Amino acid sequence: MNTSPGTVGSDPVILATAGYDHTVRFWQAHSGICTRTVQHQDSQVNALEITPDRSMIAAAGYQHIRMYDLNSNNPNPVINYDGVSKNITSVGFHEDGRWMYTGGEDCMARIWDLRSRNLQCQRIFQVNAPINCVCLHPNQAELIVGDQSGAIHIWDLKTDHNEQLIPEPDVSVNAVHIDPDASYMAAINSSGNCYVWNLTGGIGDDVTQLIPKTKIPAHKRYALRCKFSPDSTYVLLILCFPNLLSNSAQCHKWV
Known about the structure:
Keywords: Cytoplasm, Repeat, WD repeat. The protein is built from no helices and 22 strands. The chain is an all-beta fold. It has a domain at 1-126: YVTN repeat-like/Quinoprotein amine dehydrogenase (Methylamine Dehydrogenase, Chain H, 7 Propeller), CATH 2.130.10.10. The strands form six sheets. Strands 4-5-6-7 form a four-stranded antiparallel sheet, with no helix packed on it. A four-stranded antiparallel sheet has the order 8-9-10-11, with no helix packed on it. The protein has a four-stranded antiparallel sheet with strand order 12-13-14-15, with no helix packed on it. A hairpin with a 6-residue loop joins strand 2 and strand 3 (34-39).
């Protein structure tokens, strides 16, 4: 990777933040110093993700994704992806950076070919409710989609087949995550409950199968995120209180 001295891409650790102030900020993680700011003038930023080669960062907002160059001080987006009718709530990348995936409030998950000059999405997966979260399986061949109706969809990108499960009907699924070893999947919802499944299959032509493992009554109120630790031992659960003025986090461990 080519980086210029003093650019964000040259830092060993890239820390980026964004939100409703229409701004993306880059920070030195060790010092807390803001090293660069770019304006995201079209809308708030709902999600951020850095490309696997650390060359660009994707900022997902209302109706679009803007890609900013990390290896220059260019304040303007270098690539613009449009054509979505509502908020984009999730964004991520294939491990080789060949394509990008998104999910949004238009009830669609999309695949965008980053190698194509055509900046329109190449594939669409339609569900029946706005999408809150999308997670790529470590096998790079299945997308896990959580929506506001309480459904979790497993979209097989090889066959276009999909499976669905509903942990709690009509309780919004706010986040899903699979551990790095693809042994577990966790999902957390608006009731504050975190569900964990054992995963089998997902290799070759085998579709991933979910075996219920445990239900964690993690929070009494609205929960936002769940994340596994790199060693698959812990899951971190993030709670947001209804007044939006305070947050808390819990960490749960199992063997």
